[in-house]
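Everyone, carefully examine this protein record:
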Amino acid sequence: MLGFIQKNKWFIGFNFLGFYLFAKMAEDVIEKEYILVIDRWISIHINAVQAPLFNKLMVTITNFNGAVGIFIFSVLFILFLAYKKWYQDLWFYLLSVIGAAIAFSSIKLIVHRIRPNSDLILVTGYSFPSGHATMATAMALAVYLVFAKRVHAVSIQLILLIVCVIWAMSIAFSRVYLDVHWLSDVIAGVGLGLFWVTLIVLIKRSKFIQG
């Protein structure tokens, strides 16, 4: 057990971080803590930084992780993994994406949080947690883990990490900027995506060690 913890300390650490971010936001939203004040302040003042050109950019970015964008990217990525015969990674990606989708969809139906009123795009459904932030984090982390273990150059690993972080964070930011999610929604979504994918990795590694 100690050996497993030592070997996987980074995954365990990020797993706890993801759980904490999600659980903290969930608790604060349900218990109506101070985060709601911050959420409302951002929603009220976000119009001051919105600009027509940037609005179009944010809509394009947010659509990348919409239902259609996720489907197209996932199909192409799965075909690539199948072509390379990286079958374990294919199942890992599927578990990451499908599990994250089920998780945020189920939680939305439990929490029933109303969205802020956006003047830029029309979005329906419940708000907490952000599905876009959850899926972007889960997908970006899964893609990073698939390629990072095959790249030995630290510089390339770093570039890959930066690209994946920018991917997830830009999607999360777009949801707040477009005023279709509260800040706490996207923080919870990032936490949920991080928690779910690292949990899959830890379960997979624990079974591998036990076997």
The chain has one domain: 2-210. The radius of gyration is 18 Å. The CA atoms of residues 59 and 174 lie 7 Å apart. The chain has a mean pLDDT of 93.
